[in-house]
Amino acid sequence: MDPQVVVDKKSEEPDLKRQKLEEEEEEDCEEMSSYSESTCSFDSEDERLVEEEYQRSGYYDFDTTKQRRLVFCYPVIFEDSDVAHKPETDGDLVHRLSKIALQKYNDDKLENLELVRAVKANRKYGAGFIFYITFEAKDANSHTDPITFQAAVRYLRGIETVYRVHPKPLLDS
């Protein structure tokens, strides 16, 4: 006896979101074809640009415009909901992750700092998402200027893990 084939009516309907993503990927490949022989692969120049930018800035201040075809990390657009689940925005998520990181810092260092604002963030994939966040915090009991912090926080829906949190190193003059 032949096994019965069951057709799911829903799967026959076009997936508009997937179709749009596939069209965008095709457009990206077409745009990139001017770089090399009609391929979406990266080359040594892409590697050089990414490595140079990473050495200059690390993950936190990585300028994603320096990427061509080798995508190293993505900027977080605070107004979007690319990672966050609506109605939360990515900015809300970064704010929440910043608070979690700052709480860890306060617990570890016996400080009483409060979050002023999340400044910016980059993200990359890594067992969920790894957010490289720059935020400002200040002493809750004084009127001093805010301190800029950097935190690496893993986010997997419902699970947040703070890998690092520290004041941003001062650049040499």
Automatic annotation (TrEMBL):
SUPFAM superfamilies: Cystatin/monellin. Residues 7-21 have a biased composition (Basic and acidic residues). It comes from the Eukaryota. Residues 1-42 are annotated as: Disordered. Residues 22-31 have a biased composition (Acidic residues). InterPro entries: Cystatin-related_pln, Cystatin_sf. This is Cystatin/monellin superfamily protein. It comes from Arabidopsis thaliana.
